[in-house]
Amino acid sequence: MGRAHDELLELAPIDSPDFYINDPHAALARIRNEAPVLRYEHLNSWLVTKYDDIKMMSRTPGVFCVAKGIQLNDARYGNITDSFFPEGAELISTTDPPRHAELRRVIGPAFTPRVVAALTEDLRIFLRGQFDALEPGSEIEVMEELALRLPIYAVARILGVPGDNVEDLRLWSDEMMKMGAALSPDELAEVATSFGPMNDFFLDILKRKRSDPGQDLLSVLVRAELDGKSINDANVLMLATATLVAGNETTRTLLGWLAWTFATYPDQFQLLRKDPGLAPAAVDECLRIAPPVQGFLRTATQDTEVRGVPINAGDHLFMMYLSANRDEDIFPNPNTLDIQRKVESGHIAFGWGQHLCVGAALARLEGRIFAEELAARFSELQIARPPTRIRSVLQNGFVELPMRFAA
Fold this sequence. Notes:
Blueprint: H1 3-11, H2 17-21, H3 25-34, E1 37-40, E2 45-48, H4 51-58, E3 64-65, H5 72-77, H6 99-107, H7 113-118, H8 120-132, E4 139-141, H9 142-147, H10 149-159, H11 166-176, H12 185-192, H13 196-211, H14 217-223, E5 225-226, E6 229-230, H15 233-264, H16 266-274, H17 279-289, E7 295-300, E8 304-306, E9 309-311, E10 316-320, H18 321-324, H19 360-377, E11 380-383, E12 388-389, E13 398-400, E14 402-406
Parallel strand pairs: 2-10
Antiparallel strand pairs: 1-2, 3-7, 4-14, 5-6, 7-10, 8-9, 11-14, 12-13
């Protein structure tokens, strides 16, 4: 395809975790301008980097489907995502319309604005307890001591499971996220077989929900119907697991980035301290700058084109949110964090169209509370030591984030 194409490929090895850790934004900006739809022959894939193209693909599921997988590993090995779930389960993230909407309606009652808003005070009280245990000025590991527990507590409330199972819920969520790790097929298959205890945990709680249901998601699933009959256990386990992973990992990553952002952009933190009403905008600007996932895959169902580039039926396309959220045509000064930014178009960190994350409102609520409490308690945030990033082509976050919070 020519020297220029090969040079761009060398700039952006999208199936290497190192690319994401080593500040990919200069390379992505060049690709957006020179080859916004870039061919990756060895994965039978295209890298799509422009905001408008990703939005178009996201709202055209008949042409760009999820049924062939949503991870880069699905392009590499075939659809491995579905192998992480019980036989007979219909994974909501790899199901296209109209079935996707039918599955989404099943869990919708657990994520209504009223249900999410009702959690506000409880989540704030829980987070304040976490902050009370911190010693201002001492080094803390943000991911372990702060970012971990609030999302698990919140998702436990949504699911209706005991909140004291923190370590188990964390383990299962982390294992599930290995779908996007740089692992061999055998390693991925081994991970996929490790969820027996999680399935037993959820099935045991379901037995109790059938005799004493509440308003939580598992109670909703107990009462739910799909195709005119009660939803099967495989789909219950799939929906519960998908909620656990999406509600935990994405938000944990968001909270880590919020803390990092306020330390890296102290002027923005001081703006927030002066005006706590900026917290929702701060959360969204952080999501724009640092989306919790790098992007997701689609597969062309027919011969088509994106930005005039011919795409063959069966080709995979990697929609890179990390790039789209810094598209110069959409966001002026895209590499600058500005919590007072006036935007006509919002970020796509939570996806777009039919597959917009069902838990986005909950994640935003947790992020807002976290930002408000940081600004109310501390005068300055500092990075204590260089953080450690997650090595993944899917997750965009931290393993460790050592910081100090000044009173």
